[in-house]
Amino acid sequence: MNLILLGPPNAGKGTQAKKLYADFKIPQISTGDILRKAVREGTELGKLAGPLMAAGAYVPDEIVIGIVEERLKEPDCANGFILDGFPRTTPQAEALERMLSKLGKKLDAVVSLEVPHEKLIERGSGRRSCPTCGSVYHVYQSPPKKAGFCDKDGTGLVQREDDKAEVIEKRLKKYDAETAPLKHFYAQRGLLKSIDGVGSPEGIYEEIKKAAGRA
Ligand code: AMP
Questions:
Q1: What pLDDT shows up at residue 72?
Q2: pLDDT of 164 higher than 90
Q3: pLDDT, position 193
Q4: What pLDDT is attached to residue 141?
Q5: Mean pLDDT of 5-31
Q6: What is the pTM of this model?
Q7: Which residues lie closer than 8 Å to 80 by C-beta, 6 or more apart?
C-alpha cells in the first residue's frame, strides 16, 4: 500500500498513519517527525529547519525532497509507505512523481482529511509534547498520567512553538495557499479520496482503509 495522507496541521494524519503502521507494518514517513528529531539532536538540518518550523514556515523543497528520496530507498519501504506531511507543495508532488517512477513504485491513493479550521486550532493549542522523546499528548483528549509530565521518561511537557495559536493560524494559511492545491493535482490523476476528518479516530480509520482498498 503506497499512500499519501494529506491534510492541514492537526487533522490527525500522524495518529492515522500510526494505526496503519500497526496493522499493515508499512512505515510512516513523516517529514515533520524527521525534522523535529533533527532539531532535538541539533544537527545541521535541525539548525536550518528549527527557526522555519517555529515560525510556521515551510522548509525548502529541495531539502525535504532529499529526505524523502533517501527514506523511500530504505528496505522497509519495499511493501509500501505512508507519507504524512509530504508532499506539501506542487514542486514536492512533482518530485515525488519522478522519484516513484525511478524506483518503480506507484501511489495507490491520496487520502485528504477534511477538518474545519476552528477544530484544527482547538486541537493544536491543547497539544503538549515531550522535548526528550517527542511523545505527544493533549490536555483534554489524551492527557498524560501525571499532568504536565511525559509518561515515558518523566520530562516536563512543553507546548511546541508551532502549536501556539498564532503560529497555527499562519500554518493554516500556508496550507490553504500551498498545500490545498495538491487536492486538485491528485484529483486530476484519479487518486484523491476526501474523508471527513471530524469524528472518532476509529471511524476515520475505517474510512481510510476503505479509500485505500484495504477495508
Ligand atoms: P508537520 O508535523 O507535518 O505539521 O510539520 C511540522 C513543520 O515541519 C511544518 O510546519 C514545516 O515547517 C516543516 N515541514 C514538514 N514537512 C514539510 C514539507 N513537506 N515541506 C516543507 N516543510 C515541511
A1: 95
A2: no
A3: 97
A4: 83
A5: 93
A6: 0.88
A7: 1, 2, 3, 24, 26
Q: How many secondary structure helices (H) and strands (E) does the chain include?
A: 9, 7
Q: What is the signed CA dihedral for 29, 142, 144, 123, rounded to 10 degrees?
A: 80
Ligand 1 pocket (Cβ < 6 Å) reads 9, 31-32, 35, 52-53, 57-59, 64, 85-86, 88, 92, 162, 171
Q: What angle do CA 15, 4, 179 make, to 5 degrees?
A: 95
In angstroms, what is the span from residue 185 Cα to ligand 1's centroid?
19
Only one residue has cell 530507498, namely 73
Quickly tell me which residue has 486541537 as its cell: 123
Q: pLDDT tens, 45-74?
A: 999 999 999 888 999 999 999 999 999 999
Taking the centre of ligand 1 as the mean of its atom positions, its distance from the CA of residue 31, in whole angstroms, is 6
Residue 55 carries which DSSP code? T
Ligand 1, atom 8: closest residue by C-alpha = 32
Q: Which residues are catalytic?
A: 13, 88, 127, 160, 171
Q: What is the DSSP string of 26-45?
A: --EEEHHHHHHHHHHHT-HH
Residues with Cβ within 8 Å of residue 7, at least 6 apart in sequence: 13, 112, 113, 114, 115, 197
Name the residue with the closest Cα to ligand 1, atom 12. Answer: 53
Residue 139 contacts residue 125 (beta carbons within 8 Å): no
Type of residue numbered 45: L
